[in-house]
Structure formats: structure tokens, C-alpha cells
Design a protein that fits this description.
UDP N-Acetylglucosamine Acyltransferase, domain 1; 13% helix; 2 domains; 3 helices; Rossmann fold; 6-stranded mixed β-sheet
Length: 219
């Protein structure tokens, strides 16, 4: 089995550890984090190594890396660390769930593709992409680098998604549109046309009823 180091010690890293451990050909052998954020010496009985010392203990020839960071600062933190590790010469691993339906081989490195994703033919997925569970990625769509797509998103055929974009749960994108760079598309949003760079699209939350729950009848 290939040996893997996971960068991160938060929830994202714990989830990555579970999936790599139980559904991949990688053996997780350590975690790593910048020394100023290190608050423990072990996680899941594996060592937590100061990232500044990583090359002294783990050679680029024998170990692969995975960056387990979420979408903080519109994916910038994950992207910066991904590029730093890649510049050191390490291979970045991708996790693709055995329970996903994948009909493309165009998937980059440091991708995290969870269960029940449907990825249709001719889709191109860039580097450093997270696809949480249950998404539909339509044929001929392109997801560019450093994006984070939450659960149950519908991306219709022929859509292009710009770098560093975040798409929230249950969003729907119609076919053959272009999403700009660094967009935030909120939960439940419906996008029917092209978007510009650095735009935010948010659906209004459901209004609270003036009737309290203890006065409702028939429930």
C-alpha cells in the first residue's frame, strides 16, 4: 500500500483519515500541521509532525500527501498549502469513493470525492477539488482548480465553474453556463445564466412563523 501523510488535524482531517483508511489503497502513517497550530502529538494513535520538519523525516520518494482543509477564506488556505507541498516535490493523493459513479478519468490531484457522486462522461475535474456526498456533475462540465462543492448540488451538462468557487448544498446550475472565479453560490440557489468573478448568490432563508410550535394543531 502507498504511504500517506494527511495535512491537518481538524474535522476535515479526521474525515479524510476515515475514508482513506477504509476505502483506498493508501496507508495513513502520520498527520502534519504547521507548528504554531500543533496542539497534540498524536491523532488516532498516529504521530502529528511539525510541517516545517516533514522533509527531514518523510522523503518525497516514499510518501504521498493529502491536504485536508475545508473552504476557509474561499478555499485559499487549502490552496496555499496544496501549492506549498507540491513545490516540495511530494505527490498529492486523491480520494475517490468506491461508492461514487465515475465516468471520466479527467480528475486532478488532491481531490476528495465522496460517496454517491455521479460524474458523467467527458467531465473534467481540476486539482484540489472537494465534492462532498450526493452531487450530480453533468456531462461535458468543467470544474476548475480549488473548488469546494457541498452535498446534493446539481450541475447540469456543459457547465464551466471557475477557480476557487464554493457551491452550497442543494444549489442547481442550469446547462451550458459559466460560473466566474471565486464565486459563492449559497445553499438552494438557482443559477440560470453566466456569472462574473467574485460574486455572491444567496437564497433567502425560510421565514419564522409567528405561531409558536406549541400552538400548532394536527402535528
Amino acid at each position: 500500500m502507498k504511504k500517506l501523510i494527511i495535512f491537518g488535524i481538524g474535522e476535515q482531517a479526521e474525515i479524510a483519515y476515515y475514508y482513506f483508511k477504509n476505502d483506498s489503497n493508501y496507508e495513513v502513517i502520520a498527520f502534519s500541521v504547521d507548528s504554531k497550530f500543533k496542539d497534540r502529538d498524536t491523532l488516532f494513535e498516529l504521530p502529528v509532525i511539525n510541517f516545517e520538519d516533514i522533509e527531514k523525516e518523510y522523503s518525497i520518494d516514499d510518501y504521498h500527501f493529502f491536504v485536508a482543509i475545508g473552504y476557509s477564506k474561499l478555499n485559499k488556505i487549502r490552496t496555499d498549502k496544496y501549492l506549498e507541498i507540491k513545490s516540495k516535490g511530494y505527490i498529492l493523493a486523491s480520494y475517490i469513493s468506491s461508492k461514487a459513479s465515475i465516468f471520466t478519468d479527467k480528475i486532478g490531484d488532491n481531490c476528495f470525492i465522496l460517496e454517491d457522486n455521479t460524474i458523467q462522461p467527458y467531465v473534467k475535474i481540476g486539482n484540489n477539488i472537494t465534492l462532498w456526498s450526493g452531487n450530480h456533475i453533468g456531462h461535458h462540465s468543467v470544474i476548475k482548480d480549488n473548488c469546494f462543492i457541498a452535498s446534493h448540488v446539481v450541475i447540469s451538462g456543459g457547465v464551466e465553474i471557475g477557480e476557487n468557487t464554493f457551491i452550497g448544498v442543494n444549489a442547481t446550475l442550469r446547462d451550458h453556463i459559466k460560473i466566474g472565479k471565486s464565486n459563492v453560490i449559497g445553499a438552494g440557489a438557482l443559477i440560470l445564466g453566466d456569472t462574473e468573478d467574485n460574486k455572491v448568490y444567496m437564497e433567502k432563508p425560510t421565514a419564522v412563523s409567528r405561531v409558536p410550535s406549541n400552538r400548532l394543531r394536527g402535528i
